[in-house]
């Protein structure tokens, strides 16, 4: 799995594409609270929400947006090229 480093906090992350086609950063470590499975046979890897099974807790990946200490900064910062008309 191709990994990357969070530009904000320096943690190891992996970028994976969600169903909506958005690339999102995920923590590299599996955790019991993780809600995402990553299929790294694809390029880019595909992230899919793990369905909750009754009585079974499957370890999964956690969105780095949820764990990054700088996530607030990420969210506040507008993505410059995402929408036209932002530059005045
Ligand atoms: Zn981070």
Describe it for me?
By secondary structure, this protein is of the alpha+beta class. The chain has one domain. It is built from 2 helices and 5 strands; from the N terminus they run βββββαα. A 3-stranded antiparallel sheet has the order 1-2-3. Strands 4-5 form a two-stranded antiparallel ribbon. The longest helix is centred in the C-terminal third of the chain and has 6 residues. The model has no long low-confidence stretch (mean pLDDT 84). The structure holds zinc ion.
Name the strands of the widest sheet in spatial order.
1-2-3
Mean pLDDT: 84
Total domain count: 1
**How big is the Rg?**
15 Å
The low-confidence parts are: none
Give the CA-based shape.
globular
Q: What helical percentage do the residues reach?
A: 10-25%
Number of strands: 5
Which hetero ligands occur in this complex?
Answer: zinc ion
SS field, number of helical segments: 2
Outline the biggest β-sheet: 3 strands, antiparallel
* Helical/strand content category: alpha+beta
Order of helices and strands: EEEEEHH
What distance separates the N and C termini?
40 Å
Strand content: 15-25%
List the helices and strands and how they pair.
Layout: E1 4-5, E2 12-17, E3 23-27, E4 36-39, E5 46-49, H1 64-67, H2 71-76
The structure holds zinc ion.
Structure keywords:
single chain, 88 residues, alpha+beta, two-stranded antiparallel sheet, 5 strands, 11% helix, globular, binds zinc ion
Q: Gist?
A:
The protein has 88 residues and is α+β, with helices and mostly antiparallel strands. The chain is 11% helix and 24% strand. The strands form two sheets. The protein has a three-stranded antiparallel β-sheet with strand order 1-2-3.
